[in-house]
Structures are given as structure tokens and as C-alpha cells.
Amino acid sequence: MAEFPSKVNTRTSSPAQGGGAVVSTLSPDLGFVRSSLGALMLLQLLMVFNVGATVLYITAFITCSASVELTSLKGTRPYNQRAAASFFSCLVMIAYGVSAFLSFQAWRGVGSNAATSQMAGGYA
Fold first, then answer.
1. 96 and 56 in contact (C-beta within 8 Å)?
2. Whole-number Cα distances in Å, 110 to 17, 24, 106, 122
3. Are 89 and 57 spatial neighbours (Cβ–Cβ below 8 Å)?
4. Are 93 and 57 in contact (CB under 8 A)?
5. pLDDT tens figures, 27-86
6. Phi and psi for 91 in degrees, rounded to 5?
7. Is this model's pTM higher than 0.85 or not?
8. Where does residue 122 fall: left (phi above 0), alpha (psi -120 to 50 degrees), or beta otherwise?
9. Which parts of the chain span the membrane according to its record (predicted)?
């Protein structure tokens, strides 16, 4: 324990002159993004985004559809605008739902489960 203080080397630094704030730039790690783990992470983030968007558009569709008949007369301009908004939100909801499903299928691997991957591994 007596030799421990002689092995420790401490340095102190003085603050930079000028007093300005130091701005560091963040750069993405493209090597990680190009790896298979990074690609799976990005795919999972897209899947979560698509599921969230689907839920929000379901809410928009239900809200628009519920307010069409209650607040305006059939055939009037406000009625047509709300009906068009309901139709558009329904189309976008379906598109995001399909995209989320396809993202999930790609993330899971189409047709792969433990039994088929065991059999494909050379045991067949």
C-alpha cells in the first residue's frame, strides 16, 4: 500500500480563456446503423411509429365520424367537410395499419419460428 501514492498521476486543467460555451456536434454512428442490429432497431422504431400513428388515426376517425351527423345537416358544406375528413382519416388509418403489420412481419421474419429454423439448420 505504500507504493500506491507514487503510481497515481493527477493533472488539473484550467478553464478555457474567453468564457464561451463549447459546442459539440453530434454525429450518427453510421457503422452501427449499417449493422444488422442497427437495422433491426430502426425497423422496430418504424414499427412503433406506425402503430402509434394507427392509434391516433383511429381516434381521429371515430371523432370525425361521431361529429358528422350530430352537428351539421346532411348535404351542407360542414357535413361534407366532416365526412371527407372521416373518409381521409379512415384511409390513412388503414395505410398505417398495413404498414405496421408489414413492419412487424419483417421484424419477426416471415414464416420463421423455432421449429422451422431448427429444421432448416441441417436436421431435415
1. no
2. 59, 42, 6, 20
3. yes
4. yes
5. 777 787 778 888 778 878 888 888 898 899 899 888 887 877 666 778 888 888 888 888
6. -65, -45
7. no
8. left
9. 37-62, 83-104
